[in-house]
Design brief:
By secondary structure, the protein is mainly alpha-helical. The chain contains seven helices and three strands. The chain has helices spanning about 15, 20-25, 30-40, 45-50, 60-70, 90-95, 100-130, and strands at about 45, 75-80, 85-90. The longest helix has about 35 residues, at about 100-130.
Length: about 130
């Protein structure tokens, strides 16, 4: 050993990156669009969310809403009427993510063009490299 503190070769991803659990919760497919829609447009019925998120299937929307409710990010309210009515809204915990989403929206406005250009440059280099081999 050289005096450096020995580091284990395998580490718990949550210890290596403390935001990993947040990324798993918030940024899984469909979670962000659902939270965004509820934050932007307020309380909505299932069919309203389905209309806003045009490519999501009812099954997946149901699964994601249940998971978001379980995680405390969405509140489901059942109204025992005829016919029954169910509404979803973002919780205070979910609303606390708004600054994060705003920062990400600002970042995407400033940088997605650069990401697109980097991809084009990379793909052009890859094509040029494959022609030489």
């Amino acid at each position: 050993m050289t005096g450096d503190t020995a580091r284990p070769r395998t580490a718990d991803p949550e210890l290596a990156c403390p935001i990993a659990p947040v990324v798993d919760i918030v940024f899984s497919r469909w979670t962000t669009p659902i939270l965004w829609a509820l934050n932007e447009y307020g309380r909505q019925r299932f069919v309203e969310l389905e209309r806003r998120l045009t490519t999501i299937t009812p099954k997946v929307l149901t699964q994601r809403l249940r998971q978001l409710e379980r995680d405390g990010l969405v509140v489901r309210t059942y109204h025992p009427e005829v016919p029954p009515r169910v509404e979803y809204e973002i919780s205070e915990l979910g609303r606390s993510l708004a600054p994060l989403f705003a920062t990400l929206a600002d970042w995407s406005t400033a940088n997605l063009g650069k990401v697109d250009q980097a991809r084009l440059d990379y793909d052009a280099q890859a094509r040029a490299g494959s022609r030489r081999s």
